[in-house]
Amino acid sequence: MKKKNKFPIEAFTKVVHDHVLMQSEYNKINPNVVASAVLNSCGYILSNFYEVEIKTGWREKSNLWSIIALSSGMGKSVIMRHVFKDAYEKQGELVKRYKSEDDVIREWKGMIKGKKSVNIEEEPELRNWLHSKGLTNPPNKAKEFVMFSDDFTFEKLLKILDDNDGRAFMIRADEIMGLFNSFNRYRAGNDEETLLKLWGYDALMRNRINEEGNNYVSKPLVSLFGATQIEMLFDMYSQHRIVNGNIFRILFCLDDEIKTKNVFEETVKYVNSLEEFNKKYLSMYENPVNHQLLPLDDDCMSFLNSWRNDSDKKYTSDGKLKIGTYNNIMGKMDSYIFRIAIILNRLDNFYGVQSSSIRVTDLVNSAKIIDFYVKEVINVLELTSLNYRKHLNGETEINFFEKILPQSAPYFDVVKSMEHYLKYNQEDCHRLLASWIEKGILRRNAKGMVYKKS
């Protein structure tokens, strides 16, 4: 990558700022990556509790969709394990409690099996059993809340969201391309489009011929955090996703640096500085969701207007970024500036300055982070853009590549086509194909198919 980009960790309150640096040093991971993960985790934890209203009908919460892209071996799994540790432990508690309550219900059903009616007052055995379980009435079906998942069918995902009744849910994936590749794995469908609708908060209905397969989610609240290797971005940033703007829902953080890491080297002492914050909000996860509305201070809209105008000039004046692509990017950042402002505001409220509203300061700091992510998107677009003509020798090869070579074809069919059109011998065709594959303008899969990047 040509341009190095730094996450503005100074936008965080001091405790969080220092925590990011500690995690970075302790795990030998780029602070950009740590900051992105911490921001996402805090947003997920807070998303049950706060929202902001920008205009009538337009409200934002604090859920983020983030992906970190690193070279292999640079710590993707490690940072996910550390940053989301408290949430994982809370999910473990919920699972254990659900299983315990489920065991009680099964035991109760066994005791009343065969009885046409149950009158606790007339049956001491049942009354004593309830008393031994700390109950006064028969147990109800245990309700299972699922906080996150990294493998699911979409029917199951929508059922989880419905059962969660508006509570926050995290899609987590150590290798995010596994999620993208799993779309429509059991049948033809529109899994990716369904997923992308969950970025917002509108109710979602999915109908199937079999009514048991119908799903209705009235209050989706979904965060996403994933990791991938740099090489996988070529598959993720397809031309289709760029044109329709779907890929710009995701906040990317890239670290293409490859260096040795000595994990045994003495380093800073590990301290989970966010544990108190995490556990305070996680302890209330099962509570009915009732979002507190954080009003915008009077001068916030004036700042936002100036910020948007400045961004328009900054990113479009040189003509390098197409207006359509820029609009697609900023269409999502217009929401993210509020989502991130909520996170910064509540962290500051917890560790520092008490506030009951979103301040201009929160938006200024959020805008700095937004600027980081916009630059990261531009970096990804540059990284994954074809620029294939610089790898082709003259108009004949360009014409062959653009007009003769199909989007995908068997390898040996491509060789024959090259021999016929380019008039190269077979050995030169193999050599040229290998060069194009190495440079990334063509890909060859395990089945011997060659296809253009798109």
Describe the SSE topology.
Elements: H1 14-27, H2 31-46, E1 50-55, E2 58-60, E3 65-70, H3 76-83, H4 85-112, H5 124-132, E4 148-149, H6 154-164, E5 169-173, H7 176-181, H8 191-197, E6 204-206, E7 215-217, E8 222-229, H9 233-236, H10 239-244, E9 251-255, H11 275-282, E10 292-293, H12 300-316, H13 323-351, H14 360-384, H15 394-404, E11 408-410, H16 411-422, H17 426-438, E12 442-444, E13 449-452
Parallel strand pairs: 1-10, 3-8, 3-9, 4-5, 5-8
Antiparallel strand pairs: 1-2, 6-7, 11-13, 12-13
Radius of gyration from CA coordinates: 26 Å
What is the H-and-E element order?
HHEEEHHHEHEHHEEEHHEHEHHHHEHHEE
- Provide the β-strand percentage band: 5-15%
Low-confidence stretches: none
Structural class: alpha/beta
* CATH-derived architecture of the largest domain: 3-Layer(aba) Sandwich
CATH class of the largest domain: Alpha Beta
By CATH, the topology of the largest domain is: Rossmann fold
First and last CA, distance:
20 Å
Estimate the mean pLDDT confidence. Answer: 87
Written account of the structure:
The structure is a single chain. By secondary structure, the chain is of the alpha/beta class. The protein folds into 2 domains: 9-90 and 146-384, Rossmann fold, CATH 3.40.50; 388-452, Arc Repressor Mutant, subunit A (Orthogonal Bundle). Helices cover 49% and strands 12% of the residues. The protein contains 17 helices and 13 strands. The strands form 4 sheets. The protein has a 5-stranded parallel sheet with strand order 4-5-8-3-9. Helix 6 links the parallel strand 4 and strand 5. The mean pLDDT is 87.
